[in-house]
From TrEMBL:
Organism: Cyclotella atomus
Any one GO biological process: D-gluconate metabolic process
Residues annotated as the enzyme's active site: K184 (proton acceptor), E191 (proton donor)
The keyword NADP is annotated on this UniProt entry: yes
Residues covered by the 6-phosphogluconate dehydrogenase C-terminal domain: 180-473
Function: Catalyzes the oxidative decarboxylation of 6-phosphogluconate to ribulose 5-phosphate and CO(2), with concomitant reduction of NADP to NADPH.
Family, similarity comment: Belongs to the 6-phosphogluconate dehydrogenase family.
Catalyzed reaction equations: 6-phospho-D-gluconate + NADP(+) = D-ribulose 5-phosphate + CO2 + NADPH
Quaternary structure (record): Homodimer.
Protein keywords: Gluconate utilization, NADP, Oxidoreductase, Pentose shunt
Origin: domain of life: Eukaryota
Residues that, per the record, bind NADP(+): G9, L10, A11, V12, M13, G14, N32, R33, S34, V76, M77, A78, N104
Protein's name according to its UniProt entry: 6-phosphogluconate dehydrogenase, decarboxylating
């Protein structure tokens, strides 16, 4: 019997997603560069209830086992391995077949591959997958972008295998090719922001309030029953409560080296935000924090020469209950700003590339299965349902009212952290984003004046239309009016 779908690339994600599809009754043919993973996957399928998974010995055998039009999901390492795999498989694929790359791929690569496959009539989709190993097995968030007709062939399978929330499966058509990877990339940028914000709050809890790991775990557990409810808050509570089996004393968290790893999607997000002229300071602060964390040796040296404040609670009075509450709302408001930046970046790209991405739908797809799943996404989804062209999330009246209610505590929390010398780059960046965005007038008039002074870059005036240049000094007068020179 021929298979409903093929999955090529059987590391963590591929193996688990193949088992997921098979659990939903789809017959899956699996393939991998090294044969041992094929055998392992077939073995796991047997052990997990005789699931309908068949192995293949090489690309030709893999393709020959698929029913037409063939549907192939790739889950190999992003970059060159994807090109190599496409080259091998497409030799045996035919017009009308569909390849879906489920990796974390740079969206321009996906667009390029789709063009390369066009002459053969093979459709190509880029589908962001989030949820890690557990999500891939039990229901991830799936963000596919590509030709609509090809998506329609895939839809019956992916809507069943994605995570399910009250208003549907955590997947849906994102838009043309590249858009699915783009939305996944921004998802990861937001994930960086969420993780950094939580880390900063943890830093204040342990270094200002001097809470123990157990006490912090309880705080995060309690916050998980509030509007902060999210997967990342939930796992933070579990992480902080985990005792160390290795040594039999203390907590695992205290043995982990403070150097953060990364694979690149956060950097791409910031590059893209800059490319689209979108301010993304919270996500940028998260990326910077990872870079600084990686320079451990330098930081160790710096800790011997650079001094922080020697604050005591007498200088900045701390009221535990108040600070806990302030941190909670600072975290909530900062997270909203971070989502606002991510969604504004998607909107800018979608406008530039005519993708017509529905931001409300993106939020709906992120409500389950993925790493940034959080109760707050319902509110954000509702905001974009009210107005799909909202220029910025903060302009939604419900979100605006909620965030306005947070500002007093948010400011107090940041002031305390700064006073104690605890770096809170993402919490502060969010607050500064909010304080810049909400102001009718910014000091940018001075910046424009300086640009005009040293470079004759001209400026607009508040009292009349046009482009102006001022002869700021006698030296400028001798150079002459820029408009005359033009
Ligand atoms: P990896 O990214 O670790 O890639 C390993 C897989 O790629 C193996 O199947 C390997 O085959 C194959 N591979 C490597 N080089 C080649 C090559 N030149 N030709 C053919 N196959 C090759 O696997 P993951 O499962 O972690 O991730 C798969 C994709 O999903 C990646 O794009 C990743 O970024 C993305 N992703 C991963 C998540 C995670 O939590 N791990 C979460 C969300 C997305 P072999 O066994 O022969 O070495």
């Amino acid at each position: 019997m021929s298979c409903d779908i093929g999955l090529y690339g059987l590391a963590v994600m591929g193996q688990n997603f193949a088992l997921n599809m098979a659990s939903h009754g789809f017959k899956v043919c699996v393939g991998n560069r090294s044969q041992s993973k094929v055998e392992l996957t077939v073995q796991r399928a047997k052990e997990e209830g005789d699931l309908p998974i068949v192995g293949s010995s090489d690309p030709q055998d893999f393709v020959s086992q698929l029913s037409k039009p063939r549907k192939v999901i790739l889950l190999v390492m992003a970059g060159k391995p994807v090109d190599e795999t496409i080259e091998k498989l497409s030799e045996y694929l035919e017009e009308g077949d569909v390849i879906v790359d489920g990796g974390n791929e740079w969206f321009h690569n996906t667009i390029r591959r789709s063009k390369e496959l066009e002459p053969k009539g093979i459709h190509f989709l880029g589908m962001g997958i989030s949820g890690g190993e557990e999500g891939a097995r039990n229901g991830p968030s799936l963000m596919p972008g590509g030709p609509r007709a090809a998506y329609d062939l895939l839809e019956p399978i992916i809507t069943k295998c994605a995570a399910q929330v009250h208003d549907g499966p955590c997947t849906g058509y994102i838009g043309p090719v590249g858009s699915g990877n783009y939305v996944k990339m921004i998802h990861n940028g937001i994930e960086y922001g969420d993780m950094q914000l939580i880390a900063e709050v943890y830093d204040v809890l342990r270094n200002v309030l001097k809470l123990s790991n157990k006490e912090m775990a309880e705080v995060f557990e309690e916050w998980n029953r509030s509007p902060l409810n999210s997967y990342l808050i939930e796992i933070t509570a579990k992480i902080l409560a985990k005792e160390d089996d290795e040594t039999g004393s203390g907590y695992v968290i205290d043995y982990i080296l403070d150097k953060t790893g990364m694979k690149g999607t956060g950097r791409w997000t910031i590059q893209e935000a800059a490319e689209r002229s979108v301010a993304a300071p919270t996500m940028a602060a998260s990326l910077d924090s990872r870079y600084l964390s990686a320079r451990k040796d330098e930081r160790v040296k710096a800790s011997g020469v650079l001094k922080g404040p020697e604050m005591t609670s007498a200088e900045i009075p701390i009221h535990k209950g108040q600070l806990l509450d302030d941190l909670k709302w600072a975290l909530w408001a900062s997270k909203v700003c971070s989502y606002a930046q991510g969604l504004a970046t998607i909107k800018a790209a979608s406008d530039d590339m005519n993708w017509d991405v529905n931001l409300s739908e993106c939020c709906r797809m992120w409500k389950g299965g993925c790493i940034i799943r959080a109760i707050i996404l319902q509110k954000i989804q509702d905001a974009y349902t009210r107005d799909k062209n909202l220029p910025n999330l903060l302009l939604d009246p419900v979100i605006a009212a909620d965030i306005n209610n947070c500002t007093a505590g948010w400011r107090r929390a940041v002031v305390v952290a700064i006073g104690y010398g605890i770096a809170t780059p993402a919490l502060s960046a969010s607050l500064n984003y909010f304080d810049s965005y909400r102001r009718e007038s910014l000091p940018a008039n001075l910046t424009q004046a300086q640009r005009d002074f040293f470079g004759g870059h001209t400026f607009e005036r508040t009292d009349k239309d046009g482009v102006f240049h001022t002869a700021w000094t006698d030296a400028h007068k001798s150079i002459g009016d820029i408009n005359e020179r033009k």
